[in-house]
Please model this.
Amino acid sequence: MQDKPFSQIDDALNKAASRVLATSLSSLMQMPNRDRFIYQFEDLTVDCTRQLLDDDGLSALFHLAENCQLQTRIDEMFSGAPVNITEHRPVQHMSVRTPDYLASVAYQKLSAFAETVRRNPDITAVVNLGIGGSDLGPKMVTQALAGYHDGPVCHFVGNICPTDLHDVLVTCDPEKTLFIVTSKTFTTAETLANAMMAKHWLDQHGVDAGTAMVAVTAAGARAQAWGIDPDHIFAFADGIGGRYSLWSSVGLSVMIAIGSENFSRMLAGAYAIDRHVRHAELSQNIGVIMGLLRVWCRRYLQLPAYGLIPYDQRLAALPAWAQQLEMESNGKSVDRQGHPLQRPAGPLIWGVAGTSAQHSFFQWLHQSVDITPIDILVAIQPAAGLDGQIWGNHHKLLAINAVAQAEALALGAPNLAEPHRHFSGNRPSVLISWDQTTPYALGRLLALYEHITVISGFLWDVNSFDQWGVELGKQMANQLQSGEGLEDFSPAAKAFLDRLNTPRT
Ligand code: F6P
Model:
């Protein structure tokens, strides 16, 4: 049995895959009109010429999009239909980057609070306590926009590992630190344990937690019951999934770091991509094309992993953010109707900033038996503030490395006389570039990755908005913690627990 949307088009796409695998990327790249594979939106260029895909394969992918009623699915999502069918709710993260949202009372309240904190000389540090989407997004953006950071220092503590919080607290003055407890559900064990420790630390130093702690959550009543002043609770909608939430009040720490105007510019960039994805023709729609490429690489070329390599040290945390985004969204094995998928959906996503990655795992990318497509991300100009020719030249070295790697992976360099020096090439990448990493450009880029995730999810027909796969581990940790139902656990787990519970001498 084949999955429904794929059944009619699978043959054509399988044939296209066999055909390109029998030719070489270097010959595909020389084909006339190959620049058809370069897509442009404003100054964002998405160069797909180094994909193992030909014109007929691309046309077949667009047929797949039609078979999957992709345009309808996109429209349904934007129009607020309850597309998250297991949680019976719409998907609302795009609603918090519209001009209407920017003019809303909620956004005004959030920005006013952020600006008050920024102006307050008695707040020198902000600590965001949150995990997953309540951590990775704001942390990544704060690093990415370090050049715009003129507010208090911002720390991010996600892990329940005590060193994570401890190592931040030792750098903070209890009388000058604001804690933001960020948790959509306000039930997450790690975040609540860290928040409790932070409260204890404030108490120990005689500081009123009522003023030093605020909350960002979709569960206001729980935050209030926990002890947060209702005036210090910044809500966001239930329909905004954690991994899609950095645009909402979850971005409060970012706003405090870079200011509300810069934050608004980031939202404007995301909104621009939303409009493009919603309205551009499928054949020129970057979100759609990149989503189709995910499916192409995973299902037809059968490549199980996908790398993201930002050539920008400040974007070093982007792969970790995108990893949660894509893998928590599309790491599924049943379709939306609950039927088993016949072939795997979302790939393993991973990555490290270039050029450091070149001196680490690029050996494997260039010469291992496995082939892994990657996105290479690079700005044409250095970051704002790195002015002058010297920094410009320095940045050029970085950007040249980015394109050199794309070419080396694609073209290879045969050396049959010395097999250890042989580069087979034929290793696909997408080169994504833009002028400069401003808040606007970053918003655009991140929203694009969200759309790639969701669109490939639509094509695989999985629900990209739930994450039931994380529940069992949480439940078992709770059981082990409470000691209830221990008979369900293996002898090895019980032995580990005994060791943990043995009093230290
Ligand atoms: O356990 C996974 C998860 O639910 C993620 O989806 C989410 O981003 C993270 O935990 C944190 O959840 P919350 O914001 O509710 O604390």
Summary: The pocket of 6-O-phosphono-beta-D-fructofuranose is lined by residues 131-134, 183-185, 188, 191, 242-243, 328, 467, 470 (CB under 6 Å).
